[in-house]
Every structure is written in structure tokens, then in C-alpha cells.
User: Which sequence fits this backbone?
């Protein structure tokens, strides 16, 4: 499996992790688009939001349950944005489900 996020999960390429448990991992984005930019992923390879189903949706719930804690531990104040790009038109570049947490400043009122 050549998926870059699967390699991060396995420790085959380095990442700056901010949270990890048996099912999910969060790490700083290598190319930040806000002062604080963290990615949260399931360890299981799921292609995108489009591939969320009955069998794997508990992982997504677990991610969203953890996001407020991850944001707080990262020192984000005053709010943040959670984004997931899905497919070509959204410019998804890594085809392993991930949620961007963006914060640390007043973000644009435009989302696209
Ligand atoms: P997306 O374009 O929504 O698929 O987001 C993929 C994100 O993964 C981008 O923001 C990249 O900067 C980020 N990224 C790619 N490779 C790495 C890596 N090795 N470590 C951390 N973030 C990465
Ligand atoms: Zn993967």
C-alpha cells in the first residue's frame, strides 16, 4: 500500500503527531494553510467521506468526538474550521480519509 497516510500510521514516514489511540491519529499538516493546521485520520484506510458506511462510521464519530480535545490541546482559541475535501473537484490530494482542523487566526468568511 503506497498511501502516504497509511505510511504515517505505520511510522514508515515521520509526522509531528499530536494525538494517537488504537483507531485514529492526528498530526500537523506539512504544508499549513493556517497558523494551526492539524489532520485527523482513521488508522484504517478509507478513501474519503464518500466511502463512509455503516461498518466504518464509528471511526468517524470517534474522530469528531476527539476534535474539540485536539483543538484545545493545540492551543486553538476563538474557534476553528473542520474541512474534508472529497474527490477531484474538491482537490482531494491524499486519498485516505482526513479532516483538516484549521485555526489560530480569524479565518476567511469564504470557504471556497
Ligand atoms: P487534501 O488536499 O484535502 O487531500 O489534504 C491533504 C493534506 O495532506 C494537504 O494539506 C497536505 O499538505 C498534507 N500532507 C501531505 N503529505 C503530508 C505529510 N507527509 N505529513 C503531513 N501532511 C501531509
Ligand atoms: Zn491510507
Assistant:
Amino acid at each position: 500500500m503506497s498511501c502516504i497516510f497509511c505510511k504515517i500510521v505505520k511510522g514508515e514516514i515521520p509526522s509531528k503527531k499530536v494525538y494517537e489511540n488504537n483507531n485514529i491519529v492526528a498530526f500537523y499538516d506539512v504544508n499549513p494553510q493556517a497558523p494551526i493546521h492539524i489532520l485527523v485520520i482513521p488508522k484504517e484506510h478509507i478513501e474519503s467521506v464518500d466511502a463512509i458506511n455503516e461498518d466504518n462510521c464509528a471511526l468517524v464519530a470517534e474522530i469528531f468526538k476527539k476534535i474539540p480535545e485536539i483543538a484545545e490541546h493545540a492551543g486553538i482559541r476563538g474557534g476553528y474550521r473542520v474541512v474534508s475535501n472529497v474527490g477531484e473537484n474538491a482537490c482531494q490530494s491524499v486519498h485516505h480519509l482526513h479532516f483538516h482542523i484549521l485555526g489560530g487566526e480569524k479565518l476567511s468568511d469564504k470557504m471556497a
